[in-house]
Amino acid sequence: MTDLTGVPALTLKNPWGHLVAHHGKNIENRGWMPPESVWRLLIHAGKGWDRGPIADEWRDSLTPIATSAIVAVADVAYACNTSQWADEVCCGCGEWAQPGQCHWALINVRAIPVPVPCDGALRLWRPAPPVVAQVEEQLGAVAL
Ligand SMILES: [Zn+2]
Fold first, then answer.
1. Span 48-64, average pLDDT
2. 30 CA distance to ligand 1 centroid (A)?
3. Is residue 121 packed enough to be buried (19+ CB in 10 Å), middle (13-18) or exposed (0-12)?
4. Which of 38, 100, 106, 118 is the most exposed place for a label (fewest CB within 10 A)?
C-alpha cells in the first residue's frame, strides 16, 4: 500500500485543486517557498473559490467539482522564486506561473478516484490519519 505517512497537505482554492488533479496545472503559485523537506503533497481542494476569469468560468459551469476534499497526490519537482518580486514572469515555469509568486512545480500528479472529504487549513497541514488511510487505499494500486 502507498505510504503517505508524514506527507503534508496544501489547500488550494477552487478550481485550482481540480485543475492540478485533472487538467495539467503543474505550477502552484504561492507567496512563499516550501520547506526543503517537502517533496510530496496531498492536494486539497478548499471550500472557497478564487476569483478571475478562469475561476469564474469553472464556478459557473454545470459540472460540479469536488470541494473541501483531498483530490490528488503530487510530487514537488522544484520550487522557484525567480519571479517573486517581478512584475512579469521571468523564469521558465510555463503557462501557469504567475508574476509576484513562488512557483511550486508539481510532477507525478495522481488524481484520487474518489476525493476524500475533509476540512482544509492554511499553510502546510497534516490530515487526520483516517483521511490519509483512505487516500492510501485508493492509490494502493497506483505506482508512486
Ligand atoms: Zn518560476
1. 92
2. 11
3. middle
4. 100
Q: Which helix (H) or strand (E) holds 13?
A: strand 9-14
Neighbours of ion ligand 1 (CB under 5 A): 80, 91, 93, 97, 103
Structure-block grid coordinates of residue 2: 502507498
pLDDT of residue 29: 97
Task: For residue 94, report the distance from its CA to the centre of ligand 1, in Å.
Answer: 8
- SS3 state at 71: strand
- Residue 57, number of CB atoms within 10 A of its CB: 10
Find the 78 Cα to ligand 1 centroid distance in Å: 9
pLDDT level of residue 143 (50, 70, 90 thresholds): low
Span 101-130, pLDDT tens digits: 999 999 999 999 999 999 999 999 999 999
Ligand 1 centroid from CA 84, angstroms: 8
